[in-house]
Design goal:
Length: 451
């Protein structure tokens, strides 16, 4: 007897034997026996008397297709961890589930070892084969066996349409990875591709990772092919090489994007080498370091609602020109320059007030005295001085701008460091022509700004 073969029916030897999956061990505590199943050989031994349950492990270590109860796998013998040159050490291994139903969702045939009474005529069975209708459990009248009770059977999972040369990996729930290409559509297909040759040529590679290609059952018949779509799939990633991929942008509020010519994607119908991510939500989360984006032509963002930028420290925008508002034309004012200008102006007004208050006119009896209403001049002077004290309050402690683009000169950088030390409180500078020396100048400390 060959120890690598399986002995059945009292003497027949087999290298591979089909077996029905009875149960799957999902919580193996033995680390050397992960993904173990219990199964029974099909139609082995005396007719109508299935063989005893055997234990098997997956044949492949790195790619798993875990079967469910009721599916059929191939079983073979291969060396166990205890095999050596001194003696054979063999155990059972199983393959991926056999595609009995030609279904990507499940291929269960529960009760495959039982004797069944099938009410369908041979003519009906032949017709089912021609139309691709699989044998359902309801057609097998004498068995109460079912697939895994914890497996939620779905009716909206369909196979992905293949194209010439494709390599496709499909899950049970409507997820897939396609390693495909630009398609020559001279050959007819059940479903045409969602992409076109675009800026490339036929045969250019395309990779599509799609999660949730689950159309409504009413839209398709059993095992009808389905095609990925950035608009309809729950989530997808498209890596293209020249192809043009058609999809509907989630927001059409993009005046600035088009006006500033960041719209090559539109003019070439999304063709070229690109990565397209499409989902109901996209989250980028860098747990330790930066999220950095670079673009040769431009970066455009559009939303139907709100665009928010938050930074605990600083938001800095550097550009040749910064426009706040679509094609804005009104220049911003440099706050510290305006404060200095107003400070100079108000001090000149104070000086003029003092000079007016001291005016004397010649009269027939000699120079006149001070104006009768000199108290009014003093009152106005005090009011102007109060306004001078409030000038620092005009400067924002939150938003700052440069006069010119590019790196500021060293003096401006020194000023930035001084502002940071002073909690970004802008104080007016003192001019020699001013009258600051005639009064005590105090600047109210800012108690609301938080660094």
């Amino acid at each position: 007897m060959n120890p690598q073969k399986i002995l059945l029916n009292g003497g027949d030897e087999f290298e591979w034997v089909p077996a029905e999956v009875i149960s799957v061990d999902y919580k193996t505590v033995n680390p050397s026996r992960l993904y173990t199943i219990l199964c029974k050989f099909l139609n082995a031994g005396v007719a109508g008397s299935p063989t005893d349950v055997i234990q098997a492990r997956p044949l492949h270590a790195n790619i798993k297709n875990i079967p469910i109860e009721g599916e059929v796998v191939f079983v073979c013998k291969a060396p166990s961890p205890y095999h050596s040159g001194a003696g054979y050490g063999r155990e059972f291994y199983y393959t991926h589930p056999i595609s009995i139903q030609s279904s990507v969702h499940h291929n269960g045939l529960p009760g495959a070892n039982l004797i069944l009474l099938d009410k369908k005529s041979q003519k009906d069975k032949a017709q089912d084969v021609r139309t691709g209708i699989t044998r359902k459990l309801t057609d097998r009248t004498d068995t109460k066996q079912t697939i895994d009770g914890s497996f939620p059977e779905r009716l909206d999972v369909f196979p992905i349409q293949p194209f010439s040369g494709d390599i496709i990996i499909e899950g049970r729930w409507g997820q897939s990875i396609r390693l495909g290409s630009s398609v020559n559509q001279v050959r007819p297909y059940q479903q045409g591709p969602q992409w076109r040759v675009g800026a490339g040529t036929t045969g250019n590679p395309i990779t599509i990772i799609s999660n949730g290609t689950n159309p409504k059952k009413s839209e398709k018949t059993f095992n009808q092919f389905h095609i990925e779509s950035p608009d309809e799939d729950d989530s997808s990633i498209w890596l293209t090489s020249g192809q043009s991929v058609s999809f509907k942008p989630a927001s059409d509020y993009a005046e600035s994007i088009y006006d500033k010519q960041i719209a090559m994607f539109k003019s070439n119908w999304y063709a070229g080498n690109q990565i397209i991510l499409s989902s109901d939500r996209i989250v980028l989360n860098s747990k330790k370091q930066e999220i950095v984006g670079f673009a040769k032509e431009g970066i455009g963002f559009s939303t139907e609602k709100t665009l928010a930028l938050n930074a605990r420290n600083t938001v800095e925008i550097a550009a040749g020109r910064i426009l706040l508002g679509f094609n804005a034309t009104h220049p911003m004012v440099l706050g510290d320059r305006l404060i200095n200008l107003l400070n100079e102006f108000m001090n000149l007004v104070v000086q003029m007030n003092e000079k007016i208050n001291m005016i004397e006119h010649p009269t027939g009896v000699g120079p006149s005295g001070k104006p009768i209403n000199s108290g009014d001049f003093v009152f106005i002077k005090n009011q102007i001085n109060s306004l001078i004290d409030t000038l620092p309050d005009l400067a924002s402690k939150f938003a700052f701008v440069n006069e010119f683009t590019g790196n500021p000169p060293p003096s401006e950088r020194d000023k930035y460091r001084d502002l940071a030390k002073n909690n970004f409180v802008v104080e007016p500078t003192t001019s020699d022509s001013g009258n600051q020396g005639t009064r005590e100048k105090t600047v109210k400390p800012d108690t609301n700004y938080r660094t």
